Amino acid sequence: MRNLRNIRYVHWSSHSQRRITAVAWENDLTFLCSFGPSEENALIELVRINPASKYYPISARQQTTDCILETCLVLAGGDIVVVREEPLAGEDRIEIVGSVDAGITAAKWSPDEEILAITTKANTMVFMSRSFEGITDVTMTSEDLKASNHVSVGWGKKETQFKGKGAKALRDPTMPEKIDEGILSPNDDSRTSISWRGDGAFLAVSTIEGGSRRLIRIYSREGVLDSVSEPVDGLEGALSWRPAGNLIAGIQRLEDHVDVVFFERNGLRHGQFSLRLTPEQLHLAGQHITLSWNSNSTVLAVVMSDCTQLWTMGNYHWYLKQEIRNCSSMLPSIPLLWHPEKALRVMTTGSDSSNTMDYVFTTARGSATPPQDHGVVAVIDGKTIKVTPLQTANVPPPMALHEFVVNTNVIDVAINWNATLIAVLHQLGISMFEWQGVAASGSGPVLTARFTFEKDQTSAQTCQQISFSENNEVLVLQQSEKGSVVRRYGFDDDTGRMEEKLSPDSPSLTISTLSSFSNGIASKAFVQDVSGDLHNLVFGGQSFAHCKFPTQLPWVEMVPHGDDYVAFGMSSNGQLYANSRVLIKNCTSFLVTPSHLIFTTTSHLLKFVHITTVQDLEVPPDDPEIDERCRSIERGARLVTAMPTSASLVLQMPRGNLETIYPRAMVVAGIRALIEQKNYKKAFSNCRTQRVDMNILYDHAPDQLLSNVALFIDQVKKITYIDLFLSSLREEDVTQTMYKETRVVPDLAKDVPIKNTANEAPIHSLSLAKSSKINLICDAFLSILSTRTSTNLQNIITANVCKSPPALDDGLLVVAQLMNEDESMADKAVEHICFLADVNRLYENALGLYRLDLALLVAQQSQKDPREYLPFMQSLQSMTELRRRFTIDDYLSRNAKALTHLHDLDAFTELQAYIQKHTLYQQALSLYRYKPVQHKTLTALYASYLESKSQFKEAALAYESLANYTKATSCYLSSGPSQWRETLYSALSQTPPLSGSALTDLATSLYDALIESKDYFAAATIQLDYLSSIEGAAKTFCKGYFFADALHLVALKHQPKILESVIDPGLGEALASSTELLAECKGQLLAQVPRIRELRAKALADPLAFYEGERGGDGDIPDDISVAASSKLSTKGSLFTRYTGKGSQGTAGTGVSRATSKNRKREERKRARGKKGSVYEEEYLVASVGRLVERVESVREEVGRLVVGLVRRSMWERARAIQGSLAEVIGLCQACVPEVFGAKEIAQTEQAAEGEVYRPLGGDAVLQESIDAAGKRKEPPHVAAFERLSLLGT
To answer: Nearest-CA neighbor of 182 among 215, 151, 157, 158?
Structure first.
């Protein structure tokens, strides 16, 4: 689908009186040419054609040159001459480095310029090295014909084709009807030709063998004969080996036509195509055709006397893409020369001039702006234009939907903005075709006008490109000796004929490309000069100065964006530009739509970029699995055209066939646009066709859909389609997940690109966020469908069933209503609802509605045996209403509802059994709250149940409310010592009352339980009130550090002797216990805080050794305590790559044994122990310090009461000592908390942000959790300031 377009034409004429004899490329634009020798003058001149030309005259014998390679001259007389521009010391400027006495017939350097192959007049092949030393000599003899024994099986020949039953059945199909004998062409010039394969491993030599046959020999690089060609009648001397290596091209001249024939390396024929020659060209006397492939094997040049044709191949069809007028008196040896590096740069050379041309492959496509995006593509093939609107008919090349022919071979073709006109630029003029049926597969384009160039204009100027401008005028870019000229042609309003029009002065510069773009109503033309600047050709139009490129770009597209324009261009090395900004550097093709820049890359990806301002253009990453803007394509695929209306894109594969795809980015963008236009019918159709989640129809514009449900139903119409939409609803917001908007718009306030939220409706406010999206939509549809029962009954059923949870009862009520109105519709409705939901569940819901007729109708739609449900239905029919409802609810396990029916039936005895069976005590108590007798009975049952379930506290409360104090005492006692007051109350309230011994035993057991739970104040109360032990109560107060209560008790009971016997010893015990505790805390702090400091210093100094558990330099820590190093982890990465997963993106099971769970448990035990020297030691010590601080804070109040007690008993020194110890420990805690619990600087990797989180397993996961916990900031424990007792001094 690609054409060749001329973007550069340079003509050079020699001012010398001598004739050019040979040329050769030197670098990018510079070439060398030789003048002479001739019969009159044996002098050879070498000329470098560039602005600073230099001439090197060389004296030589009177001989003709065959070719020039760099500074090496190979003369037909046999001399090989080297010309050195800057010779070194001891070297001659001109030196004859070799000579062949017999004379030279052809010479060719290998592509790597390491070997020079020479054929001599003595029928020998000479291989020379770069230093002109002989490698080998090979003699070409008739014995070479035996090198290949060809057997043709006739593939592709007419004799092997099927011709019907019995046709030539006895003939061997492998034997052709006519066998070529290798007869010489009468036009053969007897020349010898050499052509190397692109990799330099083989070369082909075409010579005449024995004066009767043209033979092609294939030699290896070492000079070994590999094969010879099969006999071909009329084979001439033209020879060119395709650089790709698969074909060797030659010319076969027959009586009525000339073919380009191809050979394989083994010498066998491999296809051909015929040249499209006029009768005059076919019978032109002395015409010797030559062939030449370009460097990347895409174009084959066929050079004739009057013109040169450029051919390309696609889908096994050969297209004639360009025809070039030749210079006068073309060089017989090198008439055409392709550039070795610039694949589409070619030079044709005559005796006194040369033409240099640059071509690019382009696609002549129509506009991609909706609604004119018909996908029109025009392909040039000689005089024929193949046109196909790919949106209407996806015809694969080389076929086309329409073909039309012009008078001469086509140069360029252009399509206007709405594809109604096609302008064709050919050798003699312009032809205009009108196409009215572009949107349908009707008639093709019709010729409406033509313009013929004048003969002198044709010879003096070279036409390059054609394009449309405003008012359907045609612009033609021409090159002349004066420079670039843009001519304007259009229809005359008076005559209706196509004429040249006067146009404003075009820019006085060298124009490279002439292009146009569509703004939706017309074509806008512009040009690019050789420096990359763009110029508007519309008189008075907006300037494109800001759209300049840093250099000339072969491919240029422009698209309007708001009030401005953005130009996109691609260089020959794959750099894609937006104005002067480089977007990517590996682009292979691109095109532009009003919404997207679409391009392919060398990574075989198709990418979309939203059109916005140049600085905000965002190129998506290479992630086709996540980003809708990126998609994988076949290797080597190129863009042909895009059709946003149908959300399709056409690609051409390397072999030439077309592939139409529907990229997700275009599809979703199209659906969004259709939703905004309220075109729900087409939006739904696109979702259904392209398998896009239907939820986007609501999620993209929620308020709009809810307010246009009637419009949605009227547009979609089809009942099944509405059902499909309702059944596809999910709670997920697909615009935030799978179809997240990737377009950005600039925030004018902050000048920061933000996500486009223009279509986010307020339906997602806080008040509605809690409601179900599915139910919201279904309710909206039901409100509209309720008035359309006759036409949309099925949709009403679907809307009810698709709710979350399904509203089966509502759907069944619709069926029940229809049973009374229209039985036939009821049958259809029940059939549909049974299709949507589980019929067994529907049967239960129908029973739950207490509609036996409805349940029977649903049961008949199920697979149930009537013997299963009919007896049950008959038994229900014979019951009373309340009993029937109880039976149905009990059958459906709706026990709470069945209980209400028993309550209504006043069957209290049955109800008691029912609540005990189904544990319905709370519901029963609620029903009988105003009936004291029944409520009391039910409370007793519930208390017994709670006691059986060990819920003693609630059971005791129930028994106490029933005045059953014996049971209440037992349950309170079982509930624990915290209920000691309730227990003693119930015991004292029993009738008959408890005996004294029983009450003492109860109080003693409660006292022991309270002592065990360390509730000393309550235990002392029991000792005093129930056991009558003043001394025991005082001791208990002292155990709990309640010295004030103990002293008060002594004074109250007038027992001063207890002061010395109980209080003072209690103070001493408390002092000893507190002193020991504070000393232990002080020692722990002094040991653990320095150790934490040491561990952190080691981790910072050598993290790898610290976490891997390697032996340090001092060797203090044994090497058997490390638990971090694990054989399940790779040791190839660093610490951070190991534990963050960077560089180890393995699966969850990589390197993990079956003992993963066991390893984790063992590692968790190691972590809990925090063994010294392990990686868990620091974490363990930090937690230990935190627990110590909390413990010190918890004993602060007790120590304070102890200090006051000691002072009251005049134990001043002891009080000062314990207060000092507490103050010291609190001071240590206050000093260490900031250090131990302060924030640490942890090296953070970027893996969390990228989402590539490595998940370790087993023991490694425990270590990872420990490292993560260490990196998090911990909440430091609070340590309050210590207030000393002022009486004790400082």
So the answer is: 215
